[in-house]
Specification:
This protein has 156 residues and is α/β, with parallel strands linked by helices. It is 34% helix and 14% strand. The chain is built from five helices and five strands. The longest helix has 14 residues. The radius of gyration is 17 Å and the shape is globular. The N and C termini lie close together (12 Å). 16% of the residues are buried.
């Protein structure tokens, strides 16, 4: 990061045509980076899987319409048997555009390239969920500041 502020004038901002954000969950979730955080065992993983399943099928989630597309769920604390059990409990149908991985590289050590390669193979990729963030972090210290540092390059 430079010591100088990077600025744009109001004229530059107002004369720029920005691509509108696509809502993948109507009025709730657009393209971008989000962190789903909460206490342990409050079913965050279930919610994340439901969101992925709904996007993959094009079904509503949380009472809101979705944009159908490919979903990638990095369920890094699970195994495929546990994923299967959850999918059965959710009455999920076999679908081709919902993908799961139980192992991935760390941030800064290959994860970005893995996701980019997946995106090249699935041009309709709408969502990537990393469950749990700690599994892809090189730094084991868990704090808000460290989380921002880990994801900052992706936010720009």
């Amino acid at each position: 990061m430079s010591n100088m502020l990077q600025t744009k004038t109001a004229e530059e901002i107002l004369s720029t045509v920005f691509k509108p954000k696509e809502f993948i969950i109507d009025g709730l979730l657009t393209q971008g980076l989000y962190v789903l955080a909460g206490a342990q065992k409050v079913r965050k993983s279930w919610l994340a899987m439901d969101i992925c399943l709904s996007i993959a099928t094009g079904d509503p989630v949380l009472g809101r319409e979705t944009i159908q597309g490919t979903a990638l769920y990095l369920c890094l604390k699970d195994n495929y048997q546990r994923v299967q059990d959850r999918l059965f409990q959710m009455n999920a149908e076999p679908i081709e555009n919902l993908h799961f991985a139980t192992v991935a590289d760390k941030i800064g050590s290959g994860l970005e390239k893995q996701i980019e390669s997946f995106k090249k193979e699935h041009d309709d990729l709408k969502i990537v969920v990393v469950d749990v963030m700690q599994m892809v972090r090189s730094n084991v210290e868990s704090s808000y500041g460290n989380t921002l540092t880990d994801i900052e390059p992706e936010m720009s």
